[in-house]
Design brief:
- By secondary structure, the chain is mainly α.
- It folds into 2 domains: 14-108, no CATH class; 111-185, no CATH class.
- Helices cover 41% and strands 8% of the residues.
- The protein contains 8 helices and 6 strands; from the N terminus they run ααααααββββαββα.
- A two-stranded antiparallel sheet has the order 1-2.
- A hairpin with a 5-residue loop joins strand 1 and strand 2 (127-129).
- Helix 3 (56-65) packs across helix 5 and helix 6 crosses helix 7 (145-154).
- The model has no long low-confidence stretch (mean pLDDT 87).
- Bound molecules: zinc ion.
- Keywords: 4Fe-4S, Cytoplasm, Disulfide bond, DNA-binding, Iron, Iron-sulfur, Metal-binding, Transcription, Transcription regulation.
- Acts as a transcriptional regulator. Probably redox-responsive. The apo- but not holo-form probably binds DNA.
- InterPro entries: 4FE4S_WBL, Whib.
Length: 192
């Protein structure tokens, strides 16, 4: 939810209770410029904030009904909302159920939680792994930090060895990592 486009006079409604407006959060916090690395962290911070908002459900439903194309509303990203609108016409109750289901899936994504809890944002977009251990066990599987970061950022299993392409061999920023498939596609790509 954000203050973008809400500067015109309007009648009192649910927006008056929206935590982001009541607390005057920076609207940009709810509009990540991408979906991986630092943007993923930003999106998750915004979603966590929305979870404490008293009108999150109304906000998410409103954004779905109005086909709002970008930004985080009621704890859901644009792509999460699109997954719901793609189902065609839905009643208010159906939208409510689908929003709640999407929230539930989000909170239970252990890979995202493990990545966010164990990494720290560095300068120049690099991300550093905070733990000493070279592997982490999540949901019954063992990952290297780079494998975990790649899976979270790219939404798929890495193919072969995951390497940083930014010149920082220990960087685990999802958008700085490439697996064999990506390296074949763009052998000289450098994102530093
Ligand atoms: Zn990097």
């Amino acid at each position: 939810m954000s203050t973008r486009g809400t500067s015109l006079p309007r009648n009192p409604d649910w927006r008056d209770q929206a935590a982001c407006l009541v607390e005057s959060r920076d609207p940009e916090d709810f509009f990540p410029a991408g979906t991986t690395g630092i943007h993923l962290i930003q999106a998750n911070d915004a979603k966590a904030f929305c979870r404490g908002c008293p009108v999150a459900l109304t906000c998410a439903s409103w954004a779905i009904q109005h086909r709002v194309s970008d930004g985080i509303y009621g704890g859901l990203t644009e792509s999460q909302r699109r997954r719901i609108t793609r189902r065609g016409h839905l009643t208010d109750d159906e939208i409510t159920d689908l929003v709640k289901a999407a929230w539930g899936r989000d909170i239970r994504n252990p890979l995202v939680e493990a990545y966010l809890n164990n990494s720290v944002q560095g300068s120049s977009g690099h991300v550093w792994w905070r733990r000493r251990a070279t592997t982490i066990s999540v949901a019954g599987r063992v990952f290297t930090p780079a494998q975990l970061a790649f899976g979270v950022g790219h939404g798929r299993e890495p193919d072969g060895h995951v390497k940083a392409t930014c010149g920082q061999p220990f960087c685990v920023a999802a958008e700085h990592l490439a697996d064999s498939t990506l390296r074949r596609r763009a052998p000289a790509r450098a994102t530093a």
